[in-house]
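Tip: read the tokens left to right.
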């Protein structure tokens, strides 16, 4: 068996060793320089500073990267804290706005009730809030938050500061149903203000969605005009006299026409009100 010595492999091996030794020496010199850079000997210190410059640069680079990462996380935490603080402040502001709105609504409600009370000082009344309206039946009926425990009973008149609203058509202990004057089954005996003549104001199926009423049984020789006010006559036991009810907005046909009637608009915007009063006596 013959063996051939490979000089090429040996040269490669020697070359690797030389490179390793050179790198090792350079590292030793650089590390030594790094530790000797603060030496009291100026020459040694200067040479050490030059030799250790690469290590110092690398150290500074790692230090800068580390500080940057640290600052990034610190800034992120700060931003998160600030966002949480802003969210809390925003929530508090929303609650304050809602509370302010509630207080304003309560004040408005109290003002409306006071206005109703001042408008009917000569009546014994119970003030109430509207608590329920049927979505497709708001013109006909609604419920209020007082009932028989408060002295409410059937057929009592219901009013707003601007005029007549309707009457009590159903009663429970703590709530009642109001049938409005817009309901087609409703009828109110009225006097026409300018001539003091009686007539009958009624709800009409074709007019209720327009917030309008029909005035019938007008005296043949009565002169009625647009703008005439209509007040309760006091006839019957349901509505006291002299409560504003509506205003004439259109007269159909002329004087002495047996089929003559008029269109009237209620004094109260029944769709918009939130407070009413029940006349107890």
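Filled-in amino acids:
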């Amino acid at each position: 068996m013959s063996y051939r010595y490979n000089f090429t492999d040996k040269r490669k091996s020697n070359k690797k060793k030389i490179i390793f030794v050179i790198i090792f020496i350079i590292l030793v010199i650089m590390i030594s320089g790094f530790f000797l850079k603060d030496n009291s000997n100026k020459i040694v210190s200067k040479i050490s500073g030059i030799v250790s410059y690469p290590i110092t640069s690398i150290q500074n680079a790692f230090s800068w990267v580390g500080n940057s990462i640290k600052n990034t996380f610190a800034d992120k935490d700060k931003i998160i804290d600030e966002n949480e603080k802003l969210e809390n402040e925003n929530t508090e502001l929303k609650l304050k706005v809602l509370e302010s709105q509630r207080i304003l609504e309560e004040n408005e409600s109290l003002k409306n009730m006071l206005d109703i009370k001042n408008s009917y000082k000569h009546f014994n009344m119970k003030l109430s809030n509207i608590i329920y309206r049927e979505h497709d039946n708001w013109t006909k009926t609604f419920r209020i938050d007082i009932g028989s425990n408060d002295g409410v009973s059937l057929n009592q008149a219901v009013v707003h500061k601007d005029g007549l609203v309707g009457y009590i058509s159903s009663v429970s202990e703590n709530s009642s149903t109001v049938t409005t004057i817009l309901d087609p089954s409703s009828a109110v005996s009225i006097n026409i203000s300018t001539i003091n003549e009686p007539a009958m104001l009624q709800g009409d199926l074709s007019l209720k969605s327009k917030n309008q009423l029909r005035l019938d049984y007008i005296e043949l020789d009565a002169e009625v005009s647009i703008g005439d006010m209509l007040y309760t006559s006091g006839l019957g036991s349901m509505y006291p006299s002299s409560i504003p009810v509506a205003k004439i907005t259109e007269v159909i046909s002329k004087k002495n026409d047996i089929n003559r009637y008029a269109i009237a608009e209620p004094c109260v915007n029944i769709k918009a009100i939130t407070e009413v009063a029940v006349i107890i006596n």
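Residues 124-281 form a domain with the Thrombin, subunit H fold (CATH 2.40.10.340). The helical segments are 7-36, 42-51, 53-119.
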